[in-house]
Amino acid sequence: MARLMVSLGLNLAELGHEGFMSLGSLRKRVALQGLENLDRALERGSGAILATAHFGNFPLILARLGLEGYPIGVIIRDPRHRPVAKFLDEWRSRYGVRTVKDKPRWRSAKEGMALLRSNGVLTVHTDLNVSEGGLFVPFFGHWVPSFAGPALMSLRTQAPILPTFIRRVHGLDHRIVIMPQVKPPLTGKKEEDVWRISTILSLQTERAIRKYPDQWWWIHRRFRKRRPEKEVGRPIPQELLDAVLPVP
C-alpha cells in the first residue's frame, strides 16, 4: 500500500508540472511500445479502441498520444470533487484530448462511435464499477459488473480493440505498451459476442495487474457490486482464456 500511495502522489505532481508535461519531456520520460499496433489498426479507417484501466499514471496515455497528433478521446467519469473534475477537463483539453462523459449513456455511446467513425482513437477503462445494471464478467475470482459499451461499439463500427497499459518503470520514467488487437473467437450472436469481448478485456486487465500489482489503483472499490458465481457466473470457454495476450 505504501508504494501505491507514493505512486499516486507522484502521478498528481507529474500531471500538474508544466515542465514534465511538455512534449520534449514526455517523449523523454514516457516511452511508447507497440505504436505500430495502433497505426496498423487505424489503417483500416474504422478507428481504434484503447482498453486500459486505472493503472499507472494512465492520463499520460492521453497526453502522450494527443501531443503526437493522434485524434484521441476518452470516456470519463467525473470525480465527485468539482474543482478536480474541472482541472482534469482543462488538462485534457490542453493536450487535444476529447472528453466524452459517461452519462447519459446514450450520449456517451453516440459521441464515442462518432469519434471512431472519423478514424479517431477512443480510450476506455475496463475496471470501472457499474452502479446499475452491467454485464457480469470474471475478475480475480469474482463476478463483477462491467460496461458493455466498448464491446458494442467495436462490433458496430468494426474498430479493433487494443489493450493498452502504462507503468512506472523507475523514478519519473514510464512506459506505455499498446498491445496487438484483441481477437476473441466470435459466434455471430450479439449478446454472446459482447460477453466474450468484455470477458477477455477483464481477463486482460487482470493479467496486467498480476504482473505489476503495485501499479493498479485498487482503492476505487471495483468489487463493490460483485455477485456470487452461482448467481451470475458461467463457464469460461478455453478459447477465450487462450485469447488473452501476455503482458510485456
Written account of the structure:
The structure is a single chain. By secondary structure, the chain is α/β, with parallel strands linked by helices. It has one domain: 3-Layer(aba) Sandwich (Glycerol-3-phosphate (1)-acyltransferase), CATH 3.40.1130. The protein is 42% helix and 20% strand. It contains ten helices and nine strands. It has helices spanning 2-15, 23-29, 35-42, 59-67, 82-94, 105-117, 149-157, 190-211, 229-232, 238-243, and strands at residues 30-33, 48-52, 72-76, 98-101, 121-125, 135-139, 142-146, 161-170, 173-178. The strands form two sheets. It has a seven-stranded mixed sheet with strand order 1-9-8-2-5-3-4, sandwiched between helices. Strand 3 (72-76), helix 5 (82-94) and strand 4 form a beta-alpha-beta unit. Helix 6 (105-117) packs parallel to helix 7 and helix 7 crosses helix 8 (190-211). The longest helix has 22 residues, at 190-211. It starts with a helix and ends in a 5-residue tail after the last helix. The model has no long low-confidence stretch (mean pLDDT 93).
Poorly predicted ranges: none
Continuous helix count = 10
Silhouette: globular
Give the % helix: 40-55%
Strand order of the largest sheet: 1-9-8-2-5-3-4
Q: Average pLDDT across residues?
A: 93
Radius of gyration: 17 Å
Q: For the record, what CATH class applies?
A: Alpha Beta
Oligomerization state: single chain
Q: Please give the CATH architecture.
A: 3-Layer(aba) Sandwich
The tally of strands reads 9
Question: How much strand content do the residues show?
Answer: 15-25%
Largest sheet: 7 strands, mixed
Alpha-carbon distance between the two ends = 24 Å
Order of helices and strands: HHEHEHEHEHEEEHEEHHH
